[in-house]
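Hi team, as promised in this morning's meeting, here are the two structures we talked about. I've kept the exact order from the run log so nobody has to guess. The first one is mostly here for context; it's the second one we should focus on when we meet again. Sequence first, then the predicted structure tokens.
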Amino acid sequence: MELPNILKSLPGEVRPLVVTDKMMGQVGIVDIICARLREAGLTFGIFDEVLPDPTDEMVLAGIDVLEQGGYNCVIAVGGGSPLDAGKAIAVMSQGSRNILDYRPPKEYAGEALPLVAIPTTAGTGSEITHHTVLVHTATREKISCRGEAFMPWAAIIDYELTKTKPKRLIADNALDTLTHAIEAYVSRKRTMFSDRIALESMRLVGRYLTRAYLDPTDMEAREGLMLSATLGGLAFTNASIALVHAMSRPLGGTFHVPHGMSNAMLLFAVTRYSIPGAKDRYADCSRAIGLADPDDQDDVAVEKFLAGIKEYNKIFAVPTLTDLGIGADDFLREIERMADEAITSGSPNNNPRIPTKQDIVEIYRTLVTA
């Protein structure tokens, strides 16, 4: 592993804090990393208290460990939650410790500790983005912190680290990647550069997702999904995300739905709403994924796209609210507030069809009848 060499390129004495979760310790990945650090003669610490949907309080606990140990850089290891927590620790330890000071539309480009991101899932793309998502404990709001300071200093991307990932995570992570790529491609902030990598990310998901899901030992498929995740992250960090993510964050924060899963739950309804704003682009997405044929007309391609998303939801067992034990009344009570949070994020303004609050409310309502 190149980790010691990467760390030793930093000036002065390097004292890293490994930020991760308990699962990474249970499957042995943290042991591998610690062994490499010991062999290199580096002094390091471990903060392994990260839970799904990391909170601002969790990050502050990590900063306490960082400061008490005198650590001066961060190694974030795991899925999206440890990577996001590690990025937040690296930034907030050097800047404001109030998560609200990073709330969109603010973008933070101040000081941050060097951070090495080591993803063990193929989906979030956090290892290559200048975003990190935290839950504000007091309000349960999911806040997407943004700015160049949140960009990792280095990333080690190794698809073999995904071997321990179960089928549920394979599907959720890949559908998260797919959403990143789609939203980057239809975003109003898209560029020719982001278009190319978004289309390639979609192509890889279309080719390898079903293979990896049906046969988790298929290492070529695992490698393809890992590459697609990194490309998807690179695409949306350049073009930004849009309505699916805007609505997904409040859903996840309120009802503790994993991020990739909440994206997948919303993808069909948001796409159906958004197609009139960029039919040609959604048709391109359908062709890139392999849902439509290259010579299909746009009208045909988008219909195949919607049908394909529905089929993905069946194949990959994307749950409904009922499946997750979320009661209709409880969900409906939160819709107005979730719609407000979605609008506050600013991401709906990147959507090809910009929604009103009522539009967002109605899209949320479709989940009740799904």
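And here is the second protein, the one for discussion:
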Amino acid sequence: MLGKTSGRAGAVVWLAIALLTSAWLIAGGIGRPSDTFAPPHADEPWPAEPTQARPLRDAALRRAEVWRVPEPADLTVNPPDPTGLLSHGRVDCRFLARGADGTSPKFDCVLRNGDVVKVKYGRNPEVHAEAAASRLLTALGFGADSNYLIDHLRCYGCPRFPFQTTMVLGFAGIGDLLERSGEHLYTDFNWVAVERRFGGRPIIGGDQKGWEWSELPEDATPGASRAELDALRLMAVFLAHWDNKAPNQRLVCLSEQEGDSHQPCPRPFAIIQDLGATFGPHKVDLSGWRGVPIWSNPSQCLVSLKGLPYDGATFDDTRISEAGRVHLAQYLGALTPSQIEGLFRGARFPEYEHGRWLGFGIDNLAGWVATFREKGRQIVDRDPCPA
């Protein structure tokens, strides 16, 4: 029996090595980068004693901000990059082999200054959904990671199929082999989404990463008014954010203090972390998005994500206050038709729908704009919500 088990394990390893080898054989090119890459670095979590991690996290969520006064933003272009490294059409990075998660093609990469970013690539609706949703949330005053659509990305040390290769080698227990080989090879990717994380140190409660919508306070807190909390809930419905399990929301600490492992963060902030599953039940799905109502019961201002994948997941059916409706309506209703068109054009929705790899598809830009405005009218142009 032991011999059979060892034989199977050996076969898996050799299969992984063969896959890695074939991946390098069809890599895009050979050559070393002109400049070196700094070692990868990431924000350290807010300190907490293991026995206090969950209570401190819970206390932070009960006081978290969810909104701040927005600054003017151009929805048609990438957000400003504080380092300038993502401000060009061509970006270089070094592949970072980490355990692949989810189902969409992605990988982590290190920029020249050591910043770790997430890259989504291929004919992947999440590339476009995250770009549009994150820009919209930021423009309305909510927190979101910054997503940059990059024309050309050169990944040094990257296999041709990084997501699949990382999954297989990780399963075989030799994922670090990727970082020890192939440094002289690179693979080029066109029109990828590069995600830079929203600022702040992550707040983690032991094995609880992120937060569930059912945990979000119902009433005003020291960090957020009832209006701001309800406006965030209403935006989740507007976007049809159906994949809302806890890891797809994040709690961060915006304080610049050193941190005390026995004290909660003095300025926590709650954001939606993963916005790929938005704009319809099939992601960038116009007819599906059009069919998701804002109100499950308009007369009572009830909202629900039931009927979408995961049947609402962590998002409980909720009554939106009039203050929350008005808060969102003030900013959502201020967007002009040209800004809305720029949002979808800048996120390359027409290119995705044209199926540039498959050679077919239609341009539904006008349909996206019309659906956005209709959903906005359901929030802005309606009777007040009952007290």
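Starting points for discussion:
The chain has ten helices and eleven strands.
The first strand starts at residue 29 and ends at 30.
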